[in-house]
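Quick one: structure tokens for this chain, please?
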Amino acid sequence: MTGSDEAGDNKVGSLRIMATTDLHANLLSHDYYSDQPDPALGLSRVATLIAQARREAATIGAATLLLDNGDSIFGTPIAERPLELSHTRPAPVAQAFNLLKYDAVGLGNHDFDFGLDQLRQALLHINCPVLCSNMQALDPQLSLPFSQATVLERELADTADTPPLRIGLLSVLPIQTLKWAAHLLQGKVTIEDMVQSARDHAVALREQGCDIVVALAHTGIGEKHATYGIENALHPLANLGVLDAIIGGHTHLTLPDPRHPVSVPVVMPGAHGSHLGVIDLRVTWHSDRWAITKATSTLRPIARRRTIGGAGGVLTPLVAEDPAMIEALAEDHAETRTRMAQPVGRTNQPLHSYFTFLGRDQALALVAWAQAAAVRPALTDTVASNLPLLSAAAPGKFGARSGPSNYTDVPVGQMYMRHVIDIQPFPNELRTVVLNGAQLRDWLEMSAGLFNQVAPGTFGSPLLNEDRAGHNFDVIFGIQYDIDVSAPARFASDGELANPDSHRIRNLRWKGAPVRDSQHFAVAVSSYRIGGGGNFATAQAATPLPTPPLRVRDAIRDYVAGRTDRDPLEHAPPPWRLFSHASTEAEIFTGPGARAYLSDLDPSRHSLHGTTPDGFLRIGVRL
């Protein structure tokens, strides 16, 4: 709360800003990967909260704005419908946003995952401004499907003798988007630094007479001070002194949070439709403009986990789904379920990611085998034809900020298309590179930064660094290595060399022999990693090889269906393990669904430690 509620003889009004972010096309409260209802997600439940918040605002005469902060256009299968359907009805996200009467939509990095043409098609029927302030076309003839900023006006109750409240909106996303989607955006657009762009657009909006400037900032908490190209910049943005409120996102956190105070009103409403963010602004007319005299920021969740006896209990919805949303999307929902039910093949073992950070993930192995099988024929008659072929894969669903149900879990038996997308939720393309043994070692060192440093002889330390994203934990199949978490991480999360004398990767071997620095390998890998995702400098510096255009998930589909040959990597030993230290135990969290697969773990090294209040299963890991 800021300012004073004293208005004196001045006119006073109120503005309620409601916000969503990182929906990732979770429009309904339904998990398309398991084909089951899921009360933890869905804009259809947030819609009920929006209606409640609007009714509350109406009772006090407050004006309202409904905003979205990006990474909402694509994500779940309902947003990836066949192209021919785009000619018969608007995209599902457009239908949902129009139904709820959004006032403006910002764009996030994942909204560009399918390129500009598909984004343009998805945005075509959205009936409100779509914004991205820090992206511009390199070719003036290229028309981008969004605006850089907009100004909205709201009449305030009981202020007939004063002008309407003018609200300027801008939207910024990480400059790294150009790397992450390089194969789709390179040579077409440029992206400016978020902080500089926000400053410039905010000043311009003030010059246009805006009383309030709100930033749709697709960015997380990050560092206190700005550096060029900073990915998570909420603090530097707040400290600009030209923004009155910020909607955060990108990192799937929830704000406000007393552990992360921000100097202006801010909300970050989680992800997948888990929360509605609400900022209430009290404004007073001071002779020539409206000024904020009071501000509050709150979050409203759609569900809450009941805690029973100190353990995480059942996730209980707090609001029902909006019937109008269910009706509007019924046709797309049915089509998506039918499409996801297409048979692909069979699996003779369960494929799950509950133990992916313990070195036991058959779903990840399947990705690696499928990638290798897809590129191996293309290496014939190339410079890499006689090189060992490795395959790098990282988990797509691993709990963390997305919650204890966010894990891949494919049962034995028939596999369907929904299982393939469950294993590979991102639409990355397949790439092949050549690198030497020294580069390979540094690639693994960067990946091993996921783990915290654990001192030998200690017990109960968290094994995973929660500030590192699990989708940046590359496992490279076809080699074997140990990860020694007693050493500090060699690389920081931004890819910079943090501890030059530290080495976590030990006993790196190929076919039982130590890998030499001068030895060369071919590696099948995703376009996201080669494009700069995760800041793996050695992967970006590797020599690219021609690879047939293919999405990773299509390679998985073809491999399961038997349309590509079984790959020799299937017979390779497991790639990695944690290096052992006497009398040392750390702790890791996983989903409660892991209970069905506890026999996969070595009981001499792993033990159950109960459940966390938010529903994760705690596992002790003896090093």
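The first strand starts at residue 12 and ends at 20.
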